[in-house]
Amino acid sequence: MILMKQKCLAMQVLTCNETRSCWLENKGNGKFVMHPLPMKAQFAPVNAIVCADMDGDGVKDILLAGNEYQTGVMTGRYDASYGCFLKGTNNKGFKVIPSVESGFKIDGDVRDMKLITTGKNQKLILIAVNNDYMKVFKCR
């Protein structure tokens, strides 16, 4: 029998103090201010974000999508989100626009979204949903 000497490695302990979906405002000189997104953006994990002026008013908006189906049996899957359109306001805030008004409702385990502009200057949102077809939404 051969005994091997094992080294004890020091472990670094990391903690998480914030789990809300937020945006960070860069104040310059290495200073940032955290702004939590509205409650509707907190219903499920966010996996995909598009930040652009989607309604043509000159203010950036945010599209969020996510969910998480690959979880343990004990916790169940996180599937409470159907996406979220947050309309940017002039005071650095965001207003939730209901899906019945915005037309943005996406079901499934969303993995990624991209904004593209076609040759006809039309903005499209491409959405990759795990184990499903690619979804496409047209910006108004």
Structural features, described:
The protein starts with 21 loop residues before the first strand and ends with a strand. The strands form 3 sheets. A 4-stranded antiparallel beta sheet has the order 3-4-5-6. It has a 3-stranded antiparallel beta sheet with strand order 7-8-9, with no helix packed on it. It has one domain. The protein is extended, with a radius of gyration of 20 Å. The longest helix has 4 residues, at 99-102. The chain has one helix spanning 99-102, and strands at 22-28, 31-36, 46-52, 61-66, 84-88, 94-97, 110-117, 123-129, 135-138. With 140 residues, it is mainly β. 3% of the residues lie in helices and 39% in strands. The mean pLDDT is 90.
Secondary structure topology:
Blueprint: E1 22-28, E2 31-36, E3 46-52, E4 61-66, E5 84-88, E6 94-97, H1 99-102, E7 110-117, E8 123-129, E9 135-138
Number of helices: 1
Global geometry? extended
Strand/helix succession:
EEEEEEHEEE
Mean pLDDT over all positions: 90
- Helical residues, percent: under 10%
Name the structural class: mainly beta
Q: Rg to the nearest angstrom?
A: 20 Å
Strand order of the largest sheet: 3-4-5-6
Total number of beta strands: 9
Parts with pLDDT < 50 across at least 5 consecutive residues:
none
Amino- and carboxy-terminal Cα gap: 74 Å
In this structure, how is the largest beta sheet organized?
A: 4 strands, antiparallel
Query: What number of domains?
Result: 1
